Amino acid sequence: MSSTGHGKLLAVLLPVITAFGLGLWGLGRDNSMWRDESVTYQVAHRSPSEIMHLLGNADAVHGVYYFFMHELFSFWDGGLFALRIPSVLAICASAGLVGLIGSRIAGARVGVVAGLVFAVNPEVQMYAQEGRSYAIVCALVALATYFFVRLLEDASKALWVAYTLTALTATWLHEFALLAFAAHGVTVMTLPHPARMRRHWWTSAGIVLLCLLPVVYFSAGQSGQVSWIGNPKLADWFQIAGLAVLAALCLKYPPRDGRYRVLNQMAIPLTIAPTLFLLLGSIVQKMYVDRYVLYSSIGVSLLLGTAFCRGLDRVNALRQGSRRRMYRAGALIASCAIVAALVPPTLELRTPSSRKDNVTAIADTVENVARKGDAVIFAPSRRREWKLSYPRQFSGLNDLALARDPVRSGTLEGTEIPASRIRSRMMSAVRLVVLSDPADQPEDTSAQETVKREVLRTHFAQCSRTRVRGAQITVYARPGRCRLPR
Prior knowledge:
The protein has a five-stranded mixed sheet with strand order 2-1-5-7-6, with helices on both faces. Strands 3-4 form a two-stranded antiparallel sheet. The chain has helices at residues 3-24, 35-44, 48-55, 63-75, 79-106, 108-120, 122-128, 134-153, 157-173, 178-190, 195-220, 234-252, 258-284, 296-317, 321-348, 359-369, 385-388, 406-409, 419-427, 447-459, and strands at residues 375-379, 398-399, 402-404, 415-416, 431-436, 461-468, 471-477. 65% of the residues lie in helices and 7% in strands. By secondary structure, the chain is of the alpha/beta class.
């Protein structure tokens, strides 16, 4: 194998090995699981017909992923490890593809650095260890981007077919992956390519859009599911502004080597366009969540890899040896400082407190505080998802508000009885275990949730309250009935 071949192999293997090691490290997170992963776990354990029933009412955007995880659990029901290992492997593939893309365009050195930057990115590490679709979407976008890079060199029909099928698969896993291919379109329109290249890209985009329409149709009718998404935070706008500054710096000093320029023109739209489109869209309809555009980390990594190697080239070009040694020492110190800064978030990501809640701890707390004959209330009702993956800890607790369970109703959390009947059932109870969001979260204003709070406030006394990550477990009882034997 030639030295160039060895370099390209290294640009793939080093990021893959790094991502694999980081992905397996602390994968169990002290045997904890958060609510989105709990949804994946319980939906994937439904039958195919039950999953189809669910998708007609909710979560159509995740349908392909649920069927994939169903098949995985049918073959191997490996618990949390099986839930998360697809994401670990997907991020490994993404890291290797980032290295391959960088090495193909700008040389093995850029590939190695870009791939390693991607692998150690805390956000990437986070979703490498989650049982959700985002890491797999990222891997498919990385593969499509690799095909796209090759199309910039040789626009063969086979490559266009591979690119289109990969893009379609990514968008069927999550429709916002479409923004990554819009970023590719920006590159096609700005680079001096033949008109045939543009026509082929528009054809590919049209096919993907047409095949995506069923998912868009069903998910649009389920938009109430993401009503929890708030307005973008100021930090989100600062983040995109920082990425724009990085892109501007990469363009301000055009390198002599045209390879770097081509890489930048491909990486900059992928870095900025998806996040920017989603942020701007959130002005009209709240839809921005950073994990929806995790794949933009591919562009960021390629830009940083290019910038590092360009800086190294400049240092090596210095004629004065003492000055060159000084710059190298500065670069080494800066690199060590960056690695040191990454240690705290990397350690934090391996703990249960790194996620919004801890379904395992919630279930264990319920088991500890509940007494024989207690009833349970979920306020709001969507927090019934805390129960679904750990039903044993809730056994014996009568779910007073439940009308139909999630499987029979084809929903994620089940359906509840009308407010008047909830009041009647609560009034007949002696002790209630109430699961709710932390105190700083907004309260739901539906009739069912309003009546739950009103009955608790006027007819029950608070016996105890236990706060765990992302939740409150409060025991209420009729006055004087708090202390009951187990």
